[in-house]
Design a protein that fits this description.
Blueprint (H helix, E strand, L loop, with lengths): L1 E3 L13 E9 L2 E12 L7 H6 L21 H9 L2 E7 L7 E15 H11 L15 H4 L1
Parallel strand pairs: 3-5
Antiparallel strand pairs: 1-2, 2-3, 4-5
Enzyme class: lyase
EC number: 4.2.1.1
InterPro entries: Alpha_CA_prokaryot-like, CA_dom, CA_dom_sf, Carbonic_anhydrase_a-class, Carbonic_anhydrase_a-class_CS
Length: about 140
């Protein structure tokens, strides 16, 4: 599991503040689940998973630093994946070596993330997203510009 800020996937051309990738490998085959997060303010959402995950994120002060999370309960996320909607496509990993032929499942709805939690995460991660890529063999619009 890892995170990107801002999101690497878009829905209806909209980027989101945070994206979580859950990666799975079987032999030489990969699958990835992408979960997009939308910020909320006011009363923190009932999102115990994210709260426990980022409880001690400020202990991560430099690359390679680790910390211990609270208990992670994946049931809410599992239910969101089961009930969809899901977008699927064959793509690549978004970090080196950018392995191709990865089966992607992108959760169509967003999960709530309190703005205070996001700010803690952002203070550690900064910008770490890969821009959307064209299909192999297509002209890259950023190169052409």
């Amino acid at each position: 599991m890892h995170f990107h800020t801002p999101s690497e996937h878009r829905i209806n051309d909209e980027y989101y503040p945070l994206e979580m990738h859950l990666l799975f490998k079987s032999g030489n085959r990969f699958a990835a689940i992408s979960v997009l997060f939308q910020l909320v303010s006011g009363s923190p959402p009932n999102n115990e998973f994210m709260h426990n995950l980022f409880l001690s994120v400020r202990n991560i002060t430099r690359p390679g630093t680790s910390t211990i999370t609270g208990t992670l309960d994946f049931r809410g996320l599992s239910n969101a994946i089961k009930t969809g909607p899901l977008y699927t496509y064959n793509g690549s990993l978004t970090t080196p070596p950018c392995t191709e032929n990865v089966k992607w499942l992108v959760l169509g709805g967003t999960r709530p993330l309190h703005v205070d939690t996001y700010n803690k995460v952002k203070s550690v991660m900064k910008f770490n997203a890969r821009y959307s890529q064209n299909a192999p063999g297509k002209i890259n619009l950023l190169e052409k510009a």
